[in-house]
Amino acid sequence: MSIGGATFDLFVRTDKRFVTKQGEIEMLILPVGAKIRVEEVIETCGGGASNTAVGLARLGCASSFCGIVGSDQWGSELLENLRREGVDVSAATITEGETTSSSIILSVGSGDRIILYTPSTNTHLHHATFDLERMRACDWIYLNHLNEESCEIGEDIHAAFDVSPSLGLTWNPGGCQIEKGMRDPDIARLLPHTSILLLNKEEALAFTGEKTTEAALASLKKAGVRIVCITDGKNGATAMEGEKIFHCPAIENAHILSTTGAGDAFGVGLTWAMTQGFDLPRGLTAGTINSCSVLEHLGAEKGLLTDIEMTNRLETPSLSVREIR
């Protein structure tokens, strides 16, 4: 079960002529009152829980979605997309008279983008709309970024382990959870139940309060997480299991069209591999391959691989995962 947000995305692709640099920060500057011709506009489905549910379904998992959509056209399209992908939506909630979460993604080439979004219905995921019993019937949970209003469901997920101690959990914290940090009592209680913890480097340092990736890995491993994985864009991913640390490089010469959804795709590939009984180096490879495929497309879900595609790509080694400790 993938728990979290679903968002209707509108990608607007333009070139880099409006991008300028101020110090180390690149800025997109659009003149007020101007009429600007864009290269492409694409409507797609997205949001963490939608992306991961679709990704796991394509890899052959019995996947379900737990989140909130509105009773509008966008909500209908999100649910229809999930059903079309073979995702069980019986744990989804439809709120009447509410607008489904949406975003406008300004893509300016080479993967750079700006996301304008409204959380809308995603803020309504809390105790009253969370299907605890259905979650307990699953064998693996994928917990995605949550809005601050939804962080309370962490208590429900923790309680599920009292009934199902063997439940697997992939957790990709975000927002208020990153701000609270790993020592927050509610977060600290969930870490020992976490099978796979996914963070990018910036999030990992903020979440742990550490100064380096290695120190962050060690802190999270000490807190009880089974596998800690920290991604760092073009620098690849580093993960720790037990006392071993592995590094997987990014795929060279990838044609990057958009980075939206790449992190979700990585988590899906890694989670799938670990549930199939593969070792961590194989899992990092699967995550990287899936992520790279998404990078080459506009939209968070278009490039997600099927189980046949993933198996074929894994049979053609293109990455050298090395043990660094």
CATH architecture: 3-Layer(aba) Sandwich
Helix content: 25-40%
Count of the domains? 1
Order of neighbouring strands in the sheet with most strands: 6-1-11-12-13-14-15-16-17
Mean model confidence by pLDDT: 91
SSE series: EEEEEHEEHEEEHEHEHHEHHEEEHHHE
Major beta sheet summary: 9 strands, mixed
Overall geometry: globular
Number of DSSP E strands: 17
Could you name the CATH topology?
UDP-N-acetylmuramoyl-L-alanine:D-glutamate ligase
The poorly predicted ranges are none
Q: How would you concisely characterize the structure shown here?
A:
This protein has 325 residues and is an alpha/beta fold.
Could you characterize the architecture of this molecule?
With 325 residues, this protein is of the alpha/beta class. The chain has one domain (2-20, 38-323): 3-Layer(aba) Sandwich (UDP-N-acetylmuramoyl-L-alanine:D-glutamate ligase). 33% of the residues lie in helices and 23% in strands. The protein has 11 helices and 17 strands. It has helices at 48-58, 73-84, 132-136, 153-163, 176-180, 185-190, 201-208, 213-222, 262-275, 280-295, 307-314; strands at residues 2-3, 7-13, 19-22, 25-28, 40-46, 65-66, 68-70, 93-95, 102-107, 113-118, 140-143, 168-171, 196-200, 227-231, 237-241, 244-248, 322-323. The strands form 4 sheets. Strands 6-1-11-12-13-14-15-16-17 form a 9-stranded mixed β-sheet, with helices on both faces. A 4-stranded mixed β-sheet has the order 5-2-9-10. Helix 1 (48-58) packs across helix 9 (262-275), helix 7 packs across helix 8 (213-222) and helix 9 runs antiparallel to helix 10. The chain starts with a strand and ends with a strand. The mean pLDDT is 91.
